[in-house]
Amino acid sequence: MKRLAAFAPVAVLVALGLLFTLFGLRNDPKFLPRAMVGKPVPEVVLPTLADGLPDTLSDPGGQPYLVNVFASWCAPCEIEAPVLVELKARGVRIVGVAYKDDPEKTRAFLGRTGDPYARVLVDREGRAGIELGVSGVPETYLVDGSGQILDKVTAPLTEADAVRLLARLQR
Predict the structure, then answer these.
(1) What pLDDT does 113 receive?
(2) Phi, psi (5° rounding) for residue 11?
(3) pLDDT profile of the chain (171 residues), mean per 10
(4) Crossing angle of helices 75-89/103-113, nearest 10°?
(5) How far apart, in whole angstroms, are the C-alpha atoms of residue 51 and residue 77?
(6) DSSP letters spanning the chain
(7) What is the pTM of this model?
């Protein structure tokens, strides 16, 4: 009986290893959820970073824009910051969502990396992240003038991504 008890932890580890191996073989690790592509941008109301007044992800101007989900604690967000600043210089409107972040840290982040956003919404609890289907930060959504999500980039935005998104805007 003591011998059996000594092998129980090993048996549990082997069973867990098999379970994870079988799960990993059946699921594509490169699959990125795109459930919101083709759907309207969610009408989540969040406070703005500038004045704390409530605002939404939608852009009433009727022009295409990007929604960029970022955080001050996100190292890849710093990598994509120059691309976003360049997009702003090209006239692209970008709505920022500070995901699960402290507003003071967000301000410091934008002061350090540049502020490419037309406006920044503060999503301290992650509500907008849930509605958008965010799997991690940074994520960028291309939204057309009618409020439909056309595309999603789940990684730091690169120059190639920016070119591809801008091409989608011109179709």
Answers:
(1) 97
(2) -65, -40
(3) 66 60 51 76 96 91 93 97 97 96 98 97 95 94 94 95 88 67
(4) 60
(5) 23
(6) -HHHHHHHHHHHHHHHHHHHHHHHHHS-TT----TTTTSBPP--EEEBTTT--EEES--TT-S-EEEEEE-TT-HHHHHHHHHHHHHHHTT--EEEEEET--HHHHHHHHHHH----SEEEEETT-HHHHHHT--SS-EEEEE-TTSBEEEEE-S---HHHHHHHHHHHT-
(7) 0.80
pLDDT given at position 7: 67
Buried/exposed code over 145-155 (b: 16+ C-beta within 10 A; e: otherwise): eebebebbbbe
